Amino acid sequence: MKKKLSLPIQILIALILGIxxxxxxxxxxxxxxxxxxxxxxxGTIFVNLLKFIVVPVVLLSMIQGIISxxxxxxxxxxxxxxxxxxxxxxxIACVIGLVLGNAFxxxxxxxxxxxxxxxQVWEKATSANFMDTLVNIFPTNMWSSFTAANMxxxxxxxxxxxxxxxxxxxxxxxxxxxxxxxxxxxxxLMTFIISLSPIxxxxxxxWVVATQGAQIIGNLALVLxxxxxxxxxxxxxxxxxxxxxxxxxxxxxxxxxxxxxMMFAFTSTSSAATLPVSTECANELGADKDVASFVLxxxxxxxxxxxxxxxxxxxxxxxxxxxxxxxxxxxVTVVVTATLASIGTAGVSGxxxxxxAMVLTAMGIPVDMIMIIxxxxxxxxxxxxxxxxxxxxxxxxxxxxxxAKKALKKAAK
Length: 413
Known about the structure:
mainly alpha
């Protein structure tokens, strides 16, 4: 029986074929028009399905993530310290991604205004002040937030609904069961939509290369370079510094001890599959076994630092392709959106692309642009998974020391 090719391999093959077909069509008279009229529509269908699934995935996954917080209450301070650590580092990761992305953009390394959509106008080209933005994230009508795909409002709705379900306790059992069932259905639907990725990647890449030329390939290499520099900075300046400051372990010892897990994560692109190796590395570095057994599995689901960097760099890159310049207020919105979304969306298959689609929607950037970068998503994924696993180990060391200090204070009393 023939073994079916994995989805990443299918996407890679689709990417290569799309580039080849695009180059051929670019050299043939009428070739670019052929890709625009007969190939791009299939890519547009895939993007439409992606837009269709974003709101229910974000809403249900976040509500489910919040409901699961009840388990964290049961484990007390370890749970909340872990969540606080991950949320703080995710926010820092967003800032690093935005700074690096803007630096590359300012240096002229990202292309500007490729005009991939005819007559395209960015309705959010001017940014409201902070207080207006703050007021606008609170919805006046839940259904209009859903239909308009206002992602910040969807996140706020999910936070309120999830918190209210927790507060209602046993009376909300029916709603909890509904959320679990609905989320299971949406996951299956999203798995189907993601399985269509090779078609979307092939058709959109063929169109882009045919209309824009081979330079777009070099641009993708630059955005990959930008992301990996940001990954390295975050690992060194955040994780190793945190391990030194709170976990009492030198950066050299930290990276040496975490290296096996980092390499396994880099090659497997799965935080969950890396768990056994991560646990062994954390224990050897001195993490408490009980703490590590809680922090590492939780981190594999909600630690989104690598994805946060990817989103920020990709958002600036794709905005530049559209001839858009993000203002400071919009960059703050990216940070808030990506950080809050880390509560629930990490456990979803294809979460990186779904979250990027969510951020692009919040920024008013055409979601169609996502297909330009999605073909090389596997290369981004290797680095961001490695970074996420490194963060999980760092967190387990920090929480171990915090709990040890807490125990000493109790003993002293």
